[in-house]
Amino acid sequence: MKRRDFLKATAGGATAALCGAGIAEARENKPPLENAIGILYDATLCVGCKACVRACKEINGLPPTLMGEDVQYDASRGVSGTTYNVIKVYKNGTSEAKDKEIDGFSFAKKSCMHCVDPACVSGCPVSALTKNPVTGIVQYNADTCIGCRNCMVGCPFSIPQYEYHDAKGQIQKCLFCNQAGVERISQGLLPGCADVCPTGATLFGTRKELLAEAKKRLAAKPGETYIYPRGRASDELHTHEKDAPAYQQHIYGEHEVGGTQVMHIAGVPLNKLGMPELPDRSYASIAEGVQHTLYKGMIAPAIALAGLAYVVKRNTSNSDQDDPDGQNSRRPGPNNDRGEP
Amino acid sequence: MSEHQPVEGKILTLPFMFLGVLAAIGLYFLGVRFADGLGAVANINSGYPWGIWVVYDVVVGTALACGGYALAFVIYVFNKGKYHPLIRPAILASLFGYALGGFGAFFDMGRYWQFYNIAMPSNWNFNSVMLEVGLCVITYIFVLFIEFAPAVLERMGAKNMLRWLNKVLFFFIALGVLLPTMHQSSLGSLLIIMGAKVHPLWQSLQWQPLMALLTALTMGFSIVIFEASFAAVGFNRRPETPLLARLSKAIIALISVFLLVRVLELALNGKLGFAFAGDLAGNMFLLEMALFIFPLVVMLSRGNRDNGRLLLFAAVSLLFAGALYRFNAFLIAFNPGPGYSYFPSVPEIMVTVGIVAIEIMAYLVFVKKLPVLHSAEHA
What we know:
Chain A has helices spanning 3-23, 51-59, 119-123, 150-154, 192-196, 207-219, 283-295, 299-316, and strands at 37-42, 65-67, 70-72, 86-91, 97-98, 104-110, 129-131, 138-140, 161-162, 171-172, 202-206, 225-229, 239-243, 262-265. By secondary structure, chain A is of the alpha+beta class. Chain B has 379 residues and is mainly alpha-helical.
C-alpha cells in the first residue's frame, strides 16, 4: 500500500468514525433516584396568595423587590438573582372561570424543576452544579463555578440566574431549601414554599408519592369530592376536601426531558402556563452519548495523536541531515510533492 | 537565509493609529465590565446568557483562526509541501485569533477570578462538552505559541534552540492538527444540550460536531486565501494565486460534504419546510445556503479559480457563510421562550471591535518585525 493511499484510508477512517457518532446510540435517560424528593404544583389549588414567594425570600435571605418606594416580598415578575420562585397568572378573554383555557384564568409556578437528568449538571465543566445522590436536589457550589453560564443556555426552563449587575456575581436558583446554612430537608422540615402553602397547591413528598398522588387526582371525576393533603403528600392529618376540577390529563415533568422532580398539573394546558413542550429524551443523554462515543475516555484522541505524530514526523524529517541551520527541516521533501508547477 | 522575511516598514501608520483608538474604546468598556459587572456593559440576560462575546469572539473567532489548522492538515498530514509559504502567516493569525478568543472567554466568564478551576482535575466533569472545549482551546493556544516560536528564534539568531525545537516540533504539529479537530467539533456539540431552544433548522443533535468541523475547515482555508490576498495587496507582494487556486479544491470537497449532510439531515427529519416558512429563521437559513453555494459555483470552474479576485470573493462569501451558520444556531434563531430578547449594546459591540483591532495591530507589528511572510524570491 502506498503511503498516499494509506493517508487517504486514514482520513477516510477518521471521517467515518466521526459520521459514526451520528448514528451511534447515545446513552439512555438517567432513571430517577430511589428516594428522590420533589414538589407537586397543582395550579387548580393555587389561590395566588404568593405566600410561597415570600417564604422563599425570607428563608433564603433574598432581598425584597422594590417597586418605587414600596418594598414588596412577592412582586417579582420572574425568577432572578434574588428570586427563586414566582407565581404567575394566565388570563384569557373575560377571565371569568378559574382553570379554564378559554375565557378563564389559572395560576402558574416557575422555579427550578430539579430534573432527573439535568442539562445544567451535564454541561457544567467544573462540577459546580451536581445532583445530590440521595435526594436528587440540583446543588450549586459557587467556589468552583467559573461563570461560563453553560447551565443557563442548557436549561430548558431558563432557571439558573447569573447576577449580571454584580461585579462578583454567581448563579442563583432554588436549592430546595437545603443548601449549607438552611438545610431544611436534612432537618426533616418542609421546603419553605410547601410549608406555607395554605391549600397544598405546592406539595412536598418523594417523587414516587407525588406521581401517585398526581395520577389519583387526574383520575378523579370532575365534581366528585377529593381529599387534598397539605404540606406533605403523606400527611393524612392536614387535609381539606374540595370538588375535583377538570384536570388536563398531563403530569408535566413525569416524562419531559427524562422527567423532573418538580411536577405540575393544571386545568389549563401546561404549555399555556409557561411550560415548554419538550421531548421525553433528555438532551444531556444525547450530548454525553456523542461526546463519549467520539472520545472513548480519551483513548481515541491518544491513538489519533500517535498516528498523526508518526505521519507528521515522516513528512517533516526528510531534509534534516543536509540542513545544518535546521531552518528547512519543517519543509517537506520534494519527492512527495506532486503536481508542483 | 531563511525563506521567510520581515516586511520592512513603519509601524505607526495612520490605519494603525485608528485601530489604536478602537482598541482604547474597547478596553475602556472592558474596564467598566470588570468594575460593575457584565450587566453594566452587555445586554445578555437570563434567556440569552451568551451574547456576541461568546458567539463572535469565541465560536466564530476561533473558526476564523482555523487557517493554521487547515494548512497544517494539508502540509504535514497530506504532505503537500508546496503550500509551505502560506503556513507562517496562517499560524500567526491563528495564534492571535485563538489567544483573543481565549481572552474573550475569560472576560465573559461571570467568575473569571476562579477560571483556574477548569484546570483542576478534581473539578472535571467528563460529561461536559464545555470542559473539552475549555481545556482543548487552552492547550492549543500553547501549541500555537510553540509552532510560531521558530520565527521568533530565527529573528533572535538562537540557532541551538532552533535546532532543538525542530527535533520535537513534529509532536506539536501533530497536536496542532488533533486539538482543533477536537474542540472545533465540540463547539458544535455545545448546541446539543440547548435542545429545543436551538431552531430545528440548526438543531441537528448528533450531527452537530461534524457540521461544526466541516465549516471550521472551510473557514480555515478561506481565511488563508483572504489573508494571502490582502498581504499581497497591502504589502505590495507577488500574489500566491496559483497556490490558493489549488486550495479551493479542498474547499469544494468540504462544502459539498457539508451541504449534503446538512440538507439530508433536514430532509430525513422532515424539517426542510422550516426553510421556506418566510420567517426570520427560514430566511436566514436561505441566506446562509446562498453564501455556501455561491463559492461552490465559483470554484467549480477552473478559470474562476485562477482569477485572484473571484477567488477572494468566494473565500469572503464562505467566511460569512460559516460565521452566519454559527450566529444563526447560537443567537439569531436561538429561542429561549417568550419574554426574552437580545441585541448587543453599543459598549458590548465596541469591546468586540476593540479586541479585533488589537488582533490586527498585533498581526501588523509581527509581520513587520519577524520573518513571517514568505520571501518573494522563493515564492
